[in-house]
Design brief:
- The chain has 658 residues and is of the alpha/beta class.
- The chain folds into 4 domains: 6-51, no CATH class; 85-245, Up-down Bundle (Substrate Binding Domain Of Dnak, Chain:A, Domain 2), CATH 1.20.1270.30; 257-400, Rossmann fold (3-Layer(aba) Sandwich), CATH 3.40.50.2030; 419-657, Rossmann fold, CATH 3.40.50.
- It has 25 helices and 18 strands.
- The strands form 5 sheets. It has a 6-stranded parallel β-sheet, sandwiched between helices.
- The longest helix is centred in the N-terminal third of the chain and has 35 residues, at 85-119.
Length: 658
């Protein structure tokens, strides 16, 4: 793509239409430039990425370096200690997985800590909202529930799930959910996780100078650590959040910056942990605070989310969502945000300067994430409303004293989100015969070609939302059902792809299934930790039968086309290790043509796992994913013509009765 550039104040300025397809974000970038405010979009244009670092050909793991190898001649030299390009890349990749896995597993541990305190009666502001989910999770790992109290089950569940983090040997509890043949592969290859703390510590030790210097051995521990996230920390975070705050079911939600209201106090919550947001919902409905807002001249208090904590409440409560990671600075430029409260993960330090330019309160709430120049109001689970009430009071004060010129984009889009595993089961089979059988049968008869998970972030080095939208259009046009998590689902909601009406963009088979069930061709599942819902869905497809004996047999593929964080690398690796072909876009931190690259992109599949893929253009990504789905269909014998019959309820009852 040719980009017209002009030099302004010795900096490159790119037309806003080349930075994002989101009209609201374009409008705010343009306003920010007029106001003299810089965003990540501008910084990315003017900050050239280090080519050696981008290829992961740089080693900084001791102080004889940094050692910089040449990606164009990867075996032309080695590091000072003799480390080869494969050792260096494997170490770097391992540390990305360790950091990304630590982020998600620490999130999960925070949720488990909250669960323990609720169960023991030490926290009164939260309760177990979904007892049925509590019981089903307990049953899935072998805990007896019949004739027992909710508290008894919950105590046993806590004690079992604590091993997800602390176990020094054995297997994590949710390994019991893994399809037997997939688990057999893990055991054979030595990658079944113990506790996350043990795995992350082990992996970091291996990457220290002079320890593990065999890229295949490092990769084994990379997978073990990643699986401790996907089937451990992230899965715990999702399941405990559902138990405490409710399991999502589909809800129609407004997204984009037009959800802001000029005549109301606007509060944005941005981050990842749902307990802050859950308490904030209580605070903005507090009568005394509503009265205070009206006394300040506002018509009310308007609460909206951004990034993944926004996605958490979007699927549980239908709270409006203002935008994804790359739009968090842009929304402050509206001048309408009175307070943005953040907790952990994906919080740009650049938010501070933008907030200061418009007099917005940027408030950190978590002791893990303080930002120089931001206000800190610490959030405590034992007294949550003390913190969230104070945030509302700060926002009301800012509204009363607004000086920034307000310009709110009119863009508001509607999406349907909240397709938990439990709801998909109900949606396909009904209240009493919940089942994935209709999904599997329609994959077998060819109406649905396969399933794709298109997940992840937005990235300043690629045109925001464009790849997500074009990729998904291509997939659904080819009868591939799409599952979404994280910022990706907001991109698709803005494009109108997450409503049942979007079925007209799907191929004839997928369209008919969507119209019969009344569902969109793109199912939004929640935040980025909720990728674990995709793992559970894949396991259920295997358990239902007809599509092979392991996750690696399924006609499925995954993709993170605009990923930007180490968490994404960890997510990708736990999908690959689970058996899923996973394609990343933007760039990939491995030099092509090296032994480590061949190991992950080719050899890993022959070991019973999935494998990695890479492409930049959305149509290239789609071709890779569809080709893999077709390969798996052929291996299952599904490439031969079959009668294409859509099952109705009578057919389902006949199967259940048989």
């Amino acid at each position: 793509m040719d980009i017209k550039k002009k030099i302004v104040a010795e900096k490159i300025e790119v037309p806003v239409g080349d930075l994002t397809t989101c009209d609201a974000t374009q409008q705010m970038i343009a306003k920010g430039r007029r106001d003299g405010v810089e965003t990540a979009f501008d910084r990315a244009v003017n900050m050239k990425a280090c080519p050696i670092g981008a290829d992961s050909a740089c080693c900084k793991h001791c102080f004889m370096g940094p050692c910089r190898l040449n990606a164009k001649d990867p075996y032309g030299k080695v590091g000072v200690c003799g480390a080869t390009i494969d050792t260096i890349m494997a170490r770097n990749f391992a540390r990305m997985v360790a950091a990304g896995g630590a982020a998600h597993t620490d999130h999960g541990m925070s949720m488990l800590d909250l669960f323990r305190e609720v169960v023991n009666g030490n926290i009164k502001d939260y309760v177990i909202k979904d007892v049925q989910k509590l019981e089903s999770v307990a049953q899935s790992i072998g805990i007896e529930t019949e004739g027992r109290s909710t508290k008894e089950i919950a105590i046993d569940l806590y004690e079992a799930l604590e091993r997800t983090y602390t176990a020094v040997d054995g297997e994590i509890p949710f390994a019991k959910r893994v399809p037997p043949k997939t688990l057999e592969t893990w055991r054979k290859q030595g990658v079944v996780p113990r506790g996350a703390m043990r795995e992350i510590m082990d992996l970091m030790h291996r990457t220290h100078m002079g320890v593990d210097q065999d890229y295949t051995n490092i990769t084994r521990q990379i997978s073990r650590t990643a699986l401790a996230d996907g089937w451990g920390g992230s899965m715990v975070a999702t399941e405990i959040s559902d138990i405490l705050f409710g399991t999502p079911s589909p809800v129609s939600v407004e997204v984009n910056m037009g959800v802001l209201k000029e005549d109301q106090v606007n509060i944005i919550i941005h981050g990842h942990e749902p307990n802050l947001f859950e308490s904030m919902i209580e605070s903005v409905h507090e009568p005394t605070l509503i009265a205070a807002a009206k006394a300040a001249g506002a018509k009310g208090i308007n609460l909206a989310g951004m990034c993944c904590s926004g996605a958490e409440v979007l699927v549980r409560h239908g709270i409006p969502h203002a935008g994804s990671f790359m739009s968090t600075e842009a929304i402050l430029i509206t001048g309408a945000v009175d307070a943005m409260a953040v907790d952990v993960q994906c919080i740009k330090q650049g938010l501070v300067k933008v907030a200061q330019c418009y007099g917005t309160h940027l408030i950190t709430t978590n002791p893990r994430c303080k930002i120089e120049g931001a206000m800190h109001i610490e959030f405590h689970d034992h007294d949550p409303k003390k913190s969230t009430d104070e945030i509302v009071i700060k926002a009301i004060s800012r509204f009363k004293n607004r000086t920034a010129k307000v310009e709110i984009p009119r863009n508001v889009n509607t999406g349907v989100h909240g397709f938990s595993h439990e709801y998909i089961n109900y949606m396909l089979g009904g209240s009493f015969r919940g089942s994935y059988t209709p999904l599997n049968d329609n994959i077998i008869n060819g109406r649905i070609r396969g399933v794709a998970g298109v997940v992840g972030c937005t990235n300043a080095r690629i045109k925001q939302d464009w790849v997500h939208v074009e990729l998904v259009k291509e997939l659904i046009k080819n009868d591939v059902l799409v599952l979404q998590t994280g910022c990706a689902q907001i991109a698709l909601a803005k494009a109108g792809l997450t409503t049942p009406e979007a079925a007209h963009l799907a191929g004839p088979g997928l369209k008919e299934v969507c119209e019969t069930v009344g569902m969109p061709p793109v199912l939004g599942l929640g935040s980025c930790v909720d990728n674990s819902r995709i793992l559970i869905a894949a396991s259920e497809m295997v358990r239902t039968g007809g599509l092979g004996d392991s996750i690696a047999d399924l006609p499925v593929a995954g993709c993170a086309p605009e990923y930007m964080s180490e968490k994404a690398i960890c997510i990708g690796q736990y999908f690959v290790a689970s058996g899923v072909y996973t394609v990343f876009g933007v760039t990939f931190p491995i030099v092509e043509g090296t032994k480590f690259h061949k190991h992950l992109f080719e050899e890993y599949e022959s070991m019973g796992f999935g494998k990695w893929g890479f492409a930049v253009h959305p149509h290239d990504i789609a071709r890779l994913m569809i080709a893999h789905i077709d390969k798996k269909r052929a291996a299952l014998g599904l490439d031969k013509g079959r009668e294409r019959v859509l099952m109705d309820m009578q057919d389902r009852r006949a199967i259940d009765a048989a």
